[in-house]
From TrEMBL:
Protein name: Conserved oligomeric Golgi complex subunit 3
Compartment annotation: Golgi apparatus membrane
UniProt organism field: Macrostomum lignano
GO biological process: Golgi organization; intra-Golgi vesicle-mediated transport; intracellular protein transport
Main location: Golgi
Record keywords, A-Z: Golgi apparatus, Membrane, Protein transport, Transport
InterPro entries: ARM-type_fold, COG3_C, COG3_N, COG_su3
Family note: Belongs to the COG3 family.
Domain of life: Eukaryota
Length: 739
């Protein structure tokens, strides 16, 4: 049976495609070689044969006979060829049908194979996918197992670390402890990073314990090394001498740093990770400081005692020697400490302060008993300047705060005592108040010296020799006149300026400002007292000149000190006068002590009893201004003394005339008829006053007054005889620069 199939839907291999092509080619070749009549030809021939041999058949016997005859007729030899060909074709057809059946079976097999292949491919893909999934799961499990092993390894470190630390063969060195500390740090960091693990807290405590054990081993090792070093040096303390002191205290002690410094570097590198390392480092530094102080304190005390005994009278030398000794001690200790530790520690500073306090305890009693300001100022300068400069050169800080504060405090106290006793309490000798005699004497000396130099210059010129300077320059440009020497100053002024110059180098600006203003106040008071004494024995002009001169000297000499407020002294005090009145009111209103209203006496006492702050101001510039104004007024009165007396006599005359007019006496005295107001006398009076006007003074008002009086009572001819200067002439005389 021939099956129908779709060649396009069948997927054949290359060999199957070649076989089908070969069979198709063979069939086509066979059809070309065999002649096969067509169906129309066969039908025509059969009809012809039938028409020629038509026989009527009535029964089966006739049919069988006819069929037998037909077969006999068919055995014609001429048809043998056709029959053979037909037989061959039948045979070939059977073969090709078998072949087609085989192809059909093959195609069916291929379809089944294809279906099976698809099924196998699907199962293979599914298997491949499952394998991949299993491999991924295997990788995940392996990774998880590795993570578990990694995490578990941190916990397993505890047993290994504990066994190593408890081993009797463990050597406490940086090489052996560095991996242990690294493992402990990593384990602690891991446990802190994963607190969700079941036994994380328990192992955190365990790792802390082994860390403490390891740090204890380091501390004990360092303590043992330091103890052995100090013990070996203390056994040789009897052999101490200035020549081998440095070698004994520093050279041999430094030789032990090779055992300590690597351990300290381990702690210093890890101190930022945990507080335990900082505590261990602090304990090791404390042990080092303890042993060094135990070794050095007896020697430092002996050295301080020796210095104090050697410089018992020379306090400045004691301060310099002590500062130098302490400075070198601090420098050597810092250098030695850096051999054991990488950086300095506050405990070292505390130890150095305690060692320096040994010198301070010996130096302070000498300071508090010092009386001389020069010595105190020099000591303060040494502690404040020289020690600081030397320390800055060597990058050190001398422990000088307590000593400097004591010296400054003592200096301030002695300054107050000196100012009250030697400045305010100064008792001047007659020569100190000899003004203006001293100035006149020094002026005469200066004139005599100038005259002698001018005469010497003329003699040299007569002899044909050139004088070193022209005579005019000798008299006008003397470098130092005897009158300008400090010896001409009042003693309190000289002492004040000397004292301020010393204090300015020793005290800080704030303390110096306040103390300088107090000293200046006392100096001004002493000058006022001296000016009163001069006024008692001389004129008020000499008093004012003396006071102005020294106030100007103070202002000029104090300017470099740059005092705040320009010499203005402000003192604050408390005024308790309100407390007294409030207490009186409280006792007078005892009945209202328990009143529950605004009139409660006790509440009113609390509100009214607070003291007031009163500020007292003393301005040296105001004192100088008042003295200058008083001197100007006095000079003006002296210059216009006659004119002022004439104006006063005229006022008396006017008052007399007004009284007479009130009494209707009728005898009115005329001004020009008075003997003291004659034109000739007035001319002499005004001419003399005009000649005395050689300095600026308050005289305009006097001349205005007398000018109005003269214009009122004298004629034009008499006014010409009097020749009173006009106000313009007075202004021109007083202010020549206005021309």
């Amino acid at each position: 049976m021939q099956a129908s199939f779709d060649w396009d839907s069948i997927e054949l291999s290359d060999a199957a495609v070649d076989s089908v092509f070969y069979l198709t080619s063979s069939i086509e070749d066979s059809e070309k070689d065999v002649f096969v009549p067509s169906s129309s030809e066969r039908k025509a021939k059969d009809q012809e044969n039938v028409s020629n041999n038509i026989t009527e058949l009535t029964n089966i016997t006739e049919f069988l006979e006819w069929y037998k005859e037909y077969e006999d007729e068919s055995d014609d030899p001429s048809d043998m060829l056709v029959r053979s060909v037909q037989a061959g074709l039948q045979k070939e057809r059977s073969k090709w049908q078998e072949l087609l059946q085989g192809v059909s079976d093959t195609l069916n097999s291929l379809d089944r194979l294809r279906a099976q292949y698809s099924e196998v491919a699907g199962k293979t893909n599914a298997l491949h996918h499952d394998c991949e999934h299993l491999l991924a799961e295997q990788d995940r499990l392996l990774q998880r197992a590795q993570q578990i092993d990694t995490c578990l390894d941190y916990f397993n470190h505890y047993d290994r670390i504990s066994a190593k630390l408890n081993s009797p063969y463990l050597q406490v060195t940086a090489e052996s402890l560095q991996p242990v500390l690294s493992q402990i740090d990593d384990c602690l960091e891991f446990v802190n990073r994963h607190p969700e693990f079941k036994e994380a807290h328990a192992y955190h405590v365990k790792f802390k314990q082994v860390l403490a054990r390891c740090l204890t081993l380091i501390h004990d090792s360092v303590f043992s090394v330091l103890e052995n070093a100090v013990f070996s040096l203390e056994s040789q303390i009897d052999q101490l001498s200035p020549e081998n002191a440095f070698t004994l205290f520093y050279g041999r002690f430094r030789s032990h740093s090779a055992k300590v410094r690597p351990l300290m570097e381990l702690l210093e590198d890890r101190r930022s990770r945990s507080q335990d390392y900082q505590s261990a480092l602090h304990e090791c530094a404390a042990a080092y400081v303890q042993h060094r102080e135990r070794l050095l304190r007896p020697s430092v005390q002996a050295a301080v005692t020796e210095m104090t005994a050697r410089c018992s009278t020379d306090h400045c030398s004691l301060a310099r020697t002590g500062c130098s000794f302490l400075l070198h001690l601090c420098d050597d200790e810092e250098s030695l400490f850096r051999q054991f530790f990488r950086s300095l520690h506050p405990l070292l500073t505390a130890m150095l302060r305690r060692l320096c306090s040994t010198f301070y305890d010996a130096f302070r009693p000498t300071v508090v008993h010092l009386q001389h300001l020069e010595t105190l100022s020099e000591l303060c300068h040494i502690l404040q300047r020289e020690a600081i400069d030397l320390a800055a050169q060597q990058q050190q800080q001398v422990q000088r705060d307590g000593g400097q504060a004591d010296v400054q405090e003592r200096l301030v106290y002695r300054t107050h005592v000196y100012a009250n006793s030697e400045i305010l309490g100064f008792r001047p000798a007659p020569g100190d108040l000899a003004y203006p005699e001293k100035l006149e004497m020094m002026r005469n000396i200066a004139d005599s010296l100038n005259t002698g130099q001018v005469s010497a210059g003329g003699a040299l010129a007569d002899a044909g020799l050139a004088a070193p300077h022209p005579p005019s320059s000798v008299s006008t440009n003397m470098p130092l006149s005897p009158a300008d020497l400090h010896g001409m100053w009042y003693p309190t002024v000289r002492r004040t300026l000397t004292l301020l110059s010393k204090l300015s180098r020793c005290l800080d600006r704030g303390t110096f400002q306040g103390l300088a203003q107090e000293v200046l106040d006392l100096c001004v008071q002493s000058l006022l007292s001296a000016s009163k004494s001069i006024a008692g024995r001389k004129t008020s002009v000499d008093c004012d000149l003396f006071l102005m001169k020294h106030l100007l000297i103070l202002r000029e000499q104090v300017a470099p000190f740059q005092l705040d407020a320009g010499g203005i002294i402000k003192e604050a005090s408390l005024d308790f006068s309100k407390m007294r009145s409030a207490a009186v009111n409280l006792f007078s209103a005892r009945g209202r002590l328990l009143a529950l209203n605004r009139n409660n006496a006790f509440l009113q006492f609390l509100l009214d009893s607070h003291p007031d702050v009163v500020e007292n101001t003393l301005d040296c510039r105001q004192q100088l201004r008042a003295t200058c104004q008083r001197f100007i007024t006095s000079a003006s009165e002296r210059l216009t003394q006659g004119v002022a007396e004439f104006c006063k006599m005229y006022s008396n005359l006017e008052e007399l005339n007004s009284n007479s007019a009130k009494q209707s006496a009728g005898n009115v005295a005329l001004l020009r008829n008075q003997p003291w107001s004659a034109p000739e006398k007035l001319h002499d009076l005004l001419a003399e006053a005009y000649k005395r006007l050689k300095t600026q003074a308050n005289t305009l008002q006097c001349f205005k007054s007398i000018e109005s009086i003269l214009e009122k009572h004298y004629t034009e001819e008499e006014l010409q005889i009097i020749a009173c200067p006009t106000v313009e002439q007075i202004n021109l005389l007083l202010n020549p620069s206005r021309e």
